[in-house]
């Protein structure tokens, strides 16, 4: 069966599946790893879902209109004299929420000199 890549892209756009318009990368991966049709389709749809989740997260961040973008990657852990950096990264995983554990943080960070 002969396929037309432009027709595939058109169908993906009409179905509002923008990530699928770039299906060639997954197709090459599928050929290299010997995927069957179902595995190829699963990988393609998983990529679409992942991209939608990333886009949704970006939209929410923009909608929040944070004045400055901050992340733990930029945080100066020296400001927390009595807290280990590893603890902060562990809390960042959100695991304590799943375990229904309480976290109490008291006071402002104090800069070290």
Look at the helices and sheets and give the structural class.
mainly alpha
pLDDT averaged over residues: 87
The total count of helices amounts to 5
Based on CA atoms alone, the radius of gyration comes out at 22 Å
Strand segment tally: 0
The helix/strand order is HHHHH
What portion of residues belong to β-strands? under 5%
Secondary structure: helix percent: 40-55%
Poorly predicted segments: none
Distance between the termini: 71 Å
Q: Which overall shape is indicated by the principal axes computed on the Cα atoms?
A: elongated
Largest sheet: none
Into how many domains do the coordinates divide? 2
Detail the topology: elements first, then pairings.
Layout: H1 5-14, H2 24-33, H3 37-64, H4 85-92, H5 95-98
